Amino acid sequence: MNYNSKNDRDSSLKSPTATRTAGYAPEEYKSDVGFNLDDDQPLAVERKTAERPERIEILLNAKESMQKEKSWEKGLKIIEKSMNELGFKRYGVFLVNPLRKKLEFHSGKGVNLSKGTSIRLRDSEHVGVKCVLEKRTIRVKRCPKEKDIAGSDCVWVPIIIQNQPFGALVAGTKECRGSVTDEDVEDLEMLAGMCAAFIDRRSIVVEPVTEERSQTTPRYWLDSMEAYIVLEETPGKSVEIFSDLVTHGIPGCVVSRVHPEKLRKKYNLVKTPMLWLSRAGVELSVSPDDLPKLEYIIEDFTRKSTESVILLDGVEYLMTQTSFEDVLQYVQELKDIMVINNSRLIISLYRDALSQREYSVFVREAALL
User: What is the CATH classification number for the domain harbouring 35?
Assistant: First the structure.
């Protein structure tokens, strides 16, 4: 959006209702605490009026920053930064893991949780779970269960993408006052709407297609619902096995550190979708920081086909850019996707890039070919 004046910029945030319809469900929350213009609170109203232009500026800056950003991870950091600037002492971002059926803590401030901490979606009495399953904002005045997340006075706002719950924002305990106001709730809903629009806009959709069917007899066969490792310095045999499968009726997707055009030319893969592991920020590239995004893409791809195959090359690159533990957990989650969606995972791995301990742990996750 091009803003011609400050008034034009402000008008884009004046109507919370307009934003809600675009990104998330209408709010339903308790409004019995916080500021009320009918109350005899002149000082509170004066402070509230003075703060509003600054808060609008925070939301506008978040919107503009997210329009420029491509990385999911960095986009979520913008949301966190905005919640901090809005004055929340405690806040967090939770993401839905549909495979594990959990609401997982991604990141936040002032909360006694670590990344990976989760709430089971079957725990329907939990406010956060209720928020995402019912796709509505929930304001909590007093809730002992959430005291370690965002305080006793907090609000949960769902992040809804294409009518499906993607996650939730939770915030509570203000810097300058204890209570979370109705205006705070509206601001958080705007942030959730921006987040939903950003995730949807930056998603990569890959469709299952097969290559021209070869008339030759298949040279390789891999059972579905399994993960396999090919030890090699550069992708060779792994791509050969993958190519054999996709030219014999099995749709596949490649995730590689090698640029897709090089792989297409070398192995004559015309239709197969390919993703490039890179920070380049170009079309069909995925940053190593965006493992949740990559998992989301692969889960969506494998779910669309009765069977499929995924080639993952660049594990060593991911480890240097993130950590061994993060990549191990990612591969474990990919294995779950393979089982649930009847797919196969082929991992190209350079043995010398891992320590003995890392190698011993990693190879337990898949069969060596």
Answer: 3.30.450.40
